[in-house]
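Support request, priority: normal
Reporter: lab tech (M.K.)
Component: structure prediction queue

Hi team, I submitted a job for Sugar ABC transporter permease from Hoeflea ulvae yesterday, and the status page still shows it as pending. I've pasted the exact input below so you can check whether something in the sequence is tripping the parser. The sequence length should be 290 residues. Please let me know if I need to resubmit or if it's stuck on your end.
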Amino acid sequence: MKNDVFWRYMTLMPAVVLFLALTIVPMINLFALSFHHIEWIERAAVWKSVGWSNYAAAFEDNLFRAGAVNTVIFAVVAVSIQMVLGFMLALLTTGVTRGRLFYRTVFLLPILVPGIIIGAIWKLMYSYDFGVINKTAIFLGMSPQDWLGNPHLALASVILVDVWHWTPFCFLLLLAALESLPQDIYEAARIDGSSPWQALRFITLPLMLPAIAVTFIFRMILALKVFDEVYLLTGGGPGTSTEVVSFTIYRRFFTEDRPGYGAAISIITFATVAILIFVAGRISRRRKVA
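Reply from support: The job had stalled in the queue. We restarted it manually and it finished. Here are the results:
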């Protein structure tokens, strides 16, 4: 019996070592880096301890604060719209049997497209001079807009791209959850004379809450890490109107060559996101138990 337990742990050991090597060790290195200032002397990195000064500087960094605010706005607005659209599409298509493979393929196309192509497509569409959006606006008698150059429109334009890109992800998860709901409850509700709206409100939504919560948390995690869409479309501009935390970290790390400070704001961001996800998970679990 003891031999069985021993070999059980031994078979897990390679996976544990690999996990530590790929996850824990880099995090420890990042954490240690956040307390240092790095100088390059004769092609070698010289670590100089600076204590908590990198963390103190982060809270006085206007660019980091602007990035944090924009990231929260981006994540909340984009994910909320994606959840509503994804749920509506899943409701509309869950009963459709003819052409199921075709429409699902069409809906899923945006998440199959590489980020660099998405950036190119939407940058052309948003072009002030020859973009299809401004051409359509002119055809309808409206004024063309500088979608990515106007500080009041740039963040909304990036959010629109993210909604187009990730709504199929929400649709796919919610559709799978909808199709797994027990149909006998709906049969009983129909026999009792409930309307479609009552079935949606009192049966579908309560049963879908765990799937909605999991989808929302997954999407929030990804949305809070947004980088490629901002990098490709606006580069954080104009001004700080589309600055996000990931892009600020990129600037501090690679453009300004401040790895110690970049590590500090990375740790702050990681800790904040982890706390938010933990709280959301606890709330979701309590609602599920209730």
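Strands lie at 36-41, 44-49. DSSP finds twelve helices and two strands in the chain. Let us know if anything else looks off. Ticket resolved.
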